[in-house]
Amino acid sequence: MTQTKNDALPISVRNVTKTYGKVFALNDVSLEIKSGEFLTLLGPSGSGKTTLLMVLAGFTRPDCGSLKFGAHEMIRTAPHLRDVGMVFQNYALFPHMSVAGNVGYPLRLRNVPKAERAERIERALETVQLGGYGARSIDQLSGGQRQRVALARSIVFEPRILLMDEPLSALDKKLRDRMQIELRHLHDKLGMTTVYVTHDQREALTMSDRIAVVNHGRIMQLATPQALYESPANRFVADFIGDSSFLPVERHAGTVAHAGQTLMLAHPIPETAELLLMIRPERIRLLRDTPPPHINCFKVCVTELVYQGDSFLLYGKTGQGAEIAMRGAVRDGTVSALPKLGDWVTLGLDPADTVLIDGTGV
Amino acid sequence: MVETNADGLRRDEKLERLALFGLASPALLLVLVIMVIPVGWLFYVSFIGADGHFSFENYERMITQKSYARIFAKTFQVSLLTTGLCILIGYPLAYFMAGLPRHIANLCLITVLLPFWTSLLVRTYAWLVLLQKKGLVNSWAISLGLWDEPIKIVHNMTGTLIGMVHIMLPFLILPVYSAMRAIDRDYLKAASNLGAPPARAFWTVFFPLSTPGLFAGALMVFVLCLGFFVTPAVLGGGRVILVSMKIVSNIELFVNWGAASALGVMLLALTVGILWLASRFLRLEQMTGGGH
C-alpha cells in the first residue's frame, strides 16, 4: 500500500443557510466542488467562509440546505462519521500525546493493527518531511513543524476530502510562502478534494484551482485565479483580489467614456446598471514620450511617490479628482528620472487592460 | 565616570532586593510565629512522657495499641471515601459548568461558593437537623413512600460522609473547573473530526487534559479530610472516631499533651509523606505528557 491518489469525492453544497439571530452567516449558499479540486474560500473575517467550512466538517449545524459528499447526503451526519481530514487554524494537536500519538490517533480509532499503524504514521510523517520525529513531544516542535504534524494527522487515515482552516496564518512570511507550494504539491500527490479557507488573496491565487470569494454569507464569485483577477464580477472582488483604482464612467449608446474621453475597449461592455473602470496598478504605464495610438491616456498630477526597492508606486490625481495608482519597475536610471510630486504626467492603459466591472456596491 | 555608574547601579540592585525582602518580612515573621515555633513545640512535647521526662512512650503506644491503628485506618478510609464521592459528584458538575457560557458559569460558581459564607458549625448542625430520625429527610421520604420506618442516616458513617462531602465539594470543583476552562474546545473538535465518537473523545482527550486539576482538587480534599474535626465529630455521633477526635480526647479527658502531640506529629508526617508521593506521581505524569 502506498500513499498515492485515492478516489477523491466531489462536494455539493445546495441552498445552505445559517443565521445567528438576525445575522446571516451563510445566505443561501450553493457550491459544486469537483472531485480532486483545490478550492479556496476567500473572504474577509466575518464573511462566512469559516462557517461554511464548519458546515462541511459538521461542527456547525445550518438552518437548512443540503450537503453531499459524492452521492451521500451528509448534512445531518455527526462529525466523527464524516471521514474528512481537517487542519485547524491553531493545529489543535493533543498536548498530552507525542507526535506519533497524535498522527496515530485516527488510526487507533479505526482499529488499525499496531504494526501497520507504526508504518503508516512514519509514512505520513515522511510525506510532510518529518520522518523520525514520532517520539518528540508537541511542545518541542516549532510552529512550522506543528503545522506539518497537524497535516500528517489529517491525511494519515487517507480521507477523500481535506479541509484546511487558515493553516498557515500563524507562520512567518518566508515559511508561509514555502508551505503554500508544499501544500499544493501534496494535494497534487494525494489527490484528495481540498477546501482551503484563507483571508490572504495571494495565498489563494498561489494555491487554488478555483477560488470562491465570500462576503456577507454569499459567494460573490467562483472562478479560476486568473479569471478572478482579470475580470472580477464586481467591485468587492476587484478590491479584495489585488490592488486597483476605480474610475467612474458614463455609458453612451455602445461606447463608454471617462470624463468625456471615450475609452478604447478590447472586451465587451457588461450589461449592468452601473459601470466602473478598474485599473490594476501594474497594468498602467508611465508614458514619457508622445503617447502611441490606440491607448487610453490619463493625465494625472503626482500626489505621492513611494520607492519600494524592486518597484515604485505612483499615486496621481486626474483633473476631475479621480485617483489612480501605478506601479512601475525600477531599472537603471529610472530612479533619477522619476517625476516629482506635483508634476503632471501621462499614464497609458492598453485597451486589453481596460476592464469595466459591475459598479453596484456590495 | 563609567566606574561610578556601575557602582551606583549595583547599589540600586541591592536596594531593590532589600525592599522586596522588607515587603515579605511581615509574612515571614508571621509564618515563624504561628507555624515554625508551634510545630517545633509540638514536636518537642510529643517526646515528653507522662512523668515529664524525655521518652518515646507516646510513639510506642501508637504502635503497640491496636486501637490507634484502627483510628488511623478509619481516618484514611473516611478521607478516601469523601475524596472519591467528591470526585464522583464534583467532576461531572465542573464539566457541566465548563460547557456553559461564562456569565452563567460564574453564577453557578457563586452558588458553589455560597456555603463558604456560612459558618462550618452552622452547616454541620443543619445537616444534623435534616438527617435525624424525625428530621426533614426521613419525614419526607416516609410521606413519599420511599421507606416505611425512619432510617439511621446520622450519627454514623453515612451522616459523616454526607456532611464532609458537602463541606469539601467546593475544594474539588474549583481546581477541576479552572483546569477544564483552560482546555481548548478545538481539541474535542479535532478528536471528533479524526473519527472519535463523543465518549471516546472525552476519555482520550478531555479527561487526560483535565487530570492536573483533578489531582490538585482531590489532593486538597484528601489532606483537609485527614485533619477534619467538627463535622465528623457532630455527625459521626461518637461512632466514627478519627485522629483529630483522639487528639481532642487526649487533651480534654486525659490531659495528656504528650500523647496528643505525638498523634499530631504522626498525622503531619503521614500527610507530608502523601504530598511527597503525590508530587512525585504528578511529576511523573507530566514527564509522560499527562500535564499541560
Count of domain modules of chain B: 2
CATH homologous superfamily descriptor of the largest domain in chain B: MetI-like
What pattern of helices and strands is seen along the backbone of chain A? EEEHEEEHHHEHEHEEHHEEEEEEEEEHEE
How many helices of chain A does DSSP assign? 9
Average pLDDT of chain A works out at 90
Strand order of the largest sheet of chain A: 6-7-8-3-9-10
Cα-to-Cα separation, first versus last residue of chain B: 50 Å
CATH class of the largest domain in chain A: Alpha Beta
- By CATH, the architecture of the largest domain in chain B is named Orthogonal Bundle
Oligomer: heterodimer
Examine the secondary-structure arrangement and name the CATH architecture of the largest domain in chain A.
Answer: 3-Layer(aba) Sandwich
What value does the Rg of chain A take, in angstroms? 25 Å
Biggest beta sheet summary of chain B: none
Count of helices of chain B? 12
Mass-distribution shape of chain B? flat
Portion of residues in beta strands of chain B equals under 5%
Note down, in words, how this protein is organized.
Helices cover 24% and strands 33% of the residues of chain A. Chain A is of the alpha+beta class and 362 residues long. In chain A, the strands form five sheets. In chain A, strands 6-7-8-3-9-10 form a six-stranded mixed sheet, sandwiched between helices. In chain A, strands 16-20-17-18-19 form a five-stranded antiparallel sheet, with no helix packed on it. A four-stranded antiparallel sheet of chain A has the order 2-1-4-5, with helices on one face. The relative contact order of chain A is 0.13. Chain B has two domains: 1-46; 65-287, Orthogonal Bundle (MetI-like fold). Chain B has twelve helices and no strands. Chain B starts with a helix and ends in a 5-residue tail after the last helix. The relative contact order of chain B is 0.11. Residues 287-292 of chain B have low confidence and may be disordered. Chain A binds chain B through residues 57-59, 78-86, 88, 90, 92-98, 101, 105-106, 109-110, 137, 153-154, 157, and chain B through 184, 186-187, 189-198, 200-201, 204-205, 208-209, 289-292.
